[in-house]
From TrEMBL:
Exoribonuclease phosphorolytic domain location: 39-169, 187-252
Keyword Zinc-finger in annotation: no
Record's keyword terms, sorted: Nucleotidyltransferase, RNA-binding, rRNA processing, Transferase, tRNA processing, tRNA-binding
Identification of the protein by name: Ribonuclease PH
Organism: Propionibacterium australiense
Length: 274
């Protein structure tokens, strides 16, 4: 039987396991960019970035920047017609030069890549976790997330910005008496967490994510409930104790983002930052 190949992004030996005994003391660890282990990168939300979309924002997590647009159309997909229920979906894409080397546009390849499809579905699921379809009425809201620049955490930044754009699109419908009730049951945000060099940390930049032993994305409501948890032992298995620490970091990070979203939505200029 051939030996298991270790992913090049991680130097850990096969069978290595992350446990509480192998995790460094957080109090004695400072990240390369000077952040504390539980500290997010500077995060900024700017609403109304686009003139024509019913809801839009630019969301920035450090050097990662995502432009989000929410578009409203009357009616729902054919399979949803005459149900009295609305629909929310999402599409995710990266600009060709969002990373350090250019990638071809997927439209030129004639197919959507697996990663793009996966992230689009994740964003849609996250938003649908806080939507009352009946209150939305037979209206469809499509969220487009376009990554302008990527430095880790593009999917979590997209979800965080998507909620803000969705909120403004719902308000656009409300102003036109097009709602049956209150479609939003809460807010939703997302953050990445992981274990790098044996240390659990929050909001991984690309330099950290690319060598993480454990990589996880946490999606939470504003009330702190989990909508989705995606976790992978990239180069090592991990114990339940480490999982608990990562979930705690993720919940705490999402709580900060929920507060930032609320400030951006309340600000007259539509801006807020951490």
């Amino acid at each position: 039987m051939p030996a298991r190949t270790v992913r090049p992004r991680c130097s850990r030996r096969p069978g290595w396991r992350v446990s509480s005994s192998s995790v460094s003391d957080p109090a004695k660890t400072v990240r390369a960019d000077g952040r504390a282990l539980d500290q997010l990168r500077p995060v900024r939300i700017t609403r109304g970035w686009l003139d024509h979309a019913e809801g839009s924002c630019l969301v920035e997590f450090g050097r990662t920047r995502v432009l989000v647009a929410a578009s409203v159309t009357e009616g729902v997909p054919r399979w949803r017609r005459d149900s009295g229920l609305g629909w929310v979906t999402s599409e995710y894409e990266m600009l060709p030069r969002a990373t350090n080397t250019r990638s071809d546009r997927e439209s030129r390849r004639g197919r959507i890549g697996g990663r793009t499809h996966e992230i689009s579905r994740l964003i849609g699921r996250s938003l649908r976790g806080i939507i009352d379809y009946r209150a939305l009425g037979e209206n469809t809201i499509v969220i487009d997330c376009d990554v302008l620049q990527a430095d880790g955490g593009t999917r979590t930044a997209s979800i965080t910005g998507a909620y803000v754009a969705l909120h403004d699109a719902v308000e656009w419908l409300r102003a036109r008496d097009a709602l049956v009730g209150e479609p939003l049951t809460g807010s939703v945000s997302a953050i990445s967490v992981g274990v790098v060099d044996g240390v659990p940390m929050t909001d991984l930049a690309y330099a950290e994510d690319s060598r993480a032993d454990v990589d996880m994305n946490i999606v939470c409501t504003g009330a702190g409930d989990f909508v989705e948890v995606q976790g992978t032992g990239e180069g090592a298995a991990f114990g339940r104790d480490v999982l608990g620490r990562l979930l705690d970091l993720g919940q705490a990070g999402c709580a900060q983002l929920a507060e930032l979203q609320a400030r951006a939505l309340a600000d007259p200029d539509g801006r807020a930052e951490l």
